[in-house]
Specification:
Elements lengths: L2 H14 L25 E8 L2 E7 L13 E7 L6 E8 L13 E10 L4 E9 L9 E7 L7 E6 L21 H5 L10 E5 L5 E7 L4 E7 L6 E8 L6 E8 L2 E7 L10 E5 L7 E2 L22 E7 L7 E7 L9 E10 L2 E4 L10
Antiparallel strand pairs: 1-2, 2-3, 3-4, 5-6, 6-7, 7-8, 9-10, 10-11, 11-12, 13-14, 14-15, 15-16, 17-18, 18-19, 19-20
The protein binds beta-D-galactopyranose.
The site of beta-D-galactopyranose has 10 residues, from strand 5 and strand 13.
Length: 360
Amino acid sequence: MSFRTIRILTLVLTLGSGPATADQFTPGEIWPDDQGKHINAHGGGVLFHEGVYYWFGEHKISGGRGNTAQVGVSCYSSADLYQWENQGIALAVDGNHRSEIAKGCILERPKVIYNSRTRKFVMWFHLEHRGKGYATARSGVAVSDKVTGPYQFLKSHRPNARSWPIGYDPLKTGDSSSSHLKRDYEKGQMARDMTLFVDDDGRAFHIAASEENQTLHISLLTPDYLDFTGKFTRVDPGGNNEAPAICKHDDKYWMITSGCTGWAPNEARSFVADSMAGPWKSLGNPCEGPHPSGGIGPDKTWGGQSTFILPVHDKPGQFIAMFDVWRPKDPIDGRYLWLPVTFRSGRIIVSHPSSWSIPE
Ligand code: GAL
């Protein structure tokens, strides 16, 4: 064999075993976009619109400063879910320090939904004002006429001021799990880790960690998706869930969450309900099976934390569980675990193959 043939063969073998191929997910590996750069869309979610998937997520930079928003929200597009084209920054942070979304604020877990009545794309995200750590606990909303943006920031909310959760009686005695709920009744409830969910009837829900991260709130949004209606429900009061992700399958609503340990992984949880308003039944850890290369096991979500459950278009019953593996010392190097979801014996199950493809 000539030296040239050996070189070509080596190249073919190297490319063949590389992390990203055109028709496979390789969870946890570097995931190059169309420009060969690791995708930069952390804590994200995906919107399917007119034949194309759009992935929105936190744009991160290297080093400690990367844990705050220095750039904004990224957008990528894809027709097949494997190969992603960088569409640039959909929502930019503001150079004006007085802006609510000033450069250096904390802007996490952005999600975008489409409102077919107003024909607007609506983005919600967890917002912490610049320099205030995680004390602000608000949810921001931005809109655009075009899916890829630019999105225009409208305002931020403390949800559901002067409303009690559906079926909740504030006068009930012996209710120790709702002191924060009562504290925030007047000024609105806290909102940190969040996601959005649009039901088949077009109603949109905002799901966020509230009450000092003790209790998740599921809130019905107004028909334009830009505000809260005051109708909300509590999930697992006092259960310390965050990183919510939701899907609908077989007329049931399924939710995956994590516990609250910051950037460090913990054991995931799952829930099921017949209605978004609950009651939500706890199903335990949805992650099953070892890490394919002997890394952190399913008892700590293989090192990841949930962010979204992505329904595969035109393939009913097929979903991808999206998790982030955070790298808080070098946030731009955070990895993505996109993993197959199955439903078995009344449970939602997630496994971690070393590589996999969406079944035909
Ligand atoms: C996690 C949360 C992340 C980020 C982080 C900061 O618990 O899910 O989105 O807020 O805490 O420590």
